[in-house]
């Protein structure tokens, strides 16, 4: 086979394309190796096995999709609007990925069913961002919460029907947007400081 200068990003690109082309269950390391014109052994120098490679592909994909969430933490917005904007972009990112990139979303869904470490890290990162917004709200006297981390986790779980892949079929319902807005309003009102 021809020689190519390999690195993890090149391998991840090839594996992501293999997943899109063949689906997450049919694609394998050999498909990525063929696309790169290298032996599958060359890929094993970078990734221990298919699971490690698929995990890395999914983690990179998730980071790309949810990159727009981090800047919201630094926006000059009232904290209630910041919380609403963050949750809205979280939901929109998941929906867009499900509709626009179905094979990668299927890969993500399969990992979610297995409760992988990649998804646990992803969830922790999202909860940490929510916690940051809640701490800002508490510091400004807008939110009243005893445990910001627990409140962030509760909000994340309470909105999971709108962003967890297990509920993807419900995202097509006519009333999903109204339901989401109602849940976010209730959650925000629940943590607001009472005068």
Helix content: 55-70%
Q: What characteristic shape results from the CA principal axes?
A: elongated
Spell out the CATH superfamily of the largest domain.
Tetracycline Repressor, domain 2
Oligomer: single chain
Strand content: under 5%
Look up the CATH topology of the largest domain.
Answer: Tetracycline Repressor, domain 2
- CATH domain class of the largest domain: Mainly Alpha
Distance between the termini: 72 Å
Ranges with pLDDT <50 over ≥5 residues? none
The counted number of beta strands is: 0
- Helix-strand string: HHHHHHHHHH
Name the average pLDDT.
92
CATH architecture grouping of the largest domain: Orthogonal Bundle
Largest sheet: none
Radius of gyration: 20 Å
Counted by DSSP, the helix tally is 10
Number of domains: 2
Sheet/helix structural class:
mainly alpha
List the helices and strands and how they pair.
Elements: H1 8-22, H2 29-36, H3 40-44, H4 50-65, H5 69-72, H6 79-100, H7 102-114, H8 117-139, H9 148-158, H10 176-191
Overall description:
This protein is an all-alpha fold. The chain has 10 helices and no strands. It has helices at 8-22, 29-36, 40-44, 50-65, 69-72, 79-100, 102-114, 117-139, 148-158, 176-191. Helix 1 (8-22) crosses helix 4 (50-65) and helix 4 packs across helix 7 (102-114). The chain starts with 7 loop residues before the first helix and ends with a helix.
Describe this protein with a few key phrases.
mainly alpha, Arc Repressor Mutant, subunit A, 195 residues, 2 domains, elongated, single chain, 10 helices, Tetracycline Repressor, domain 2
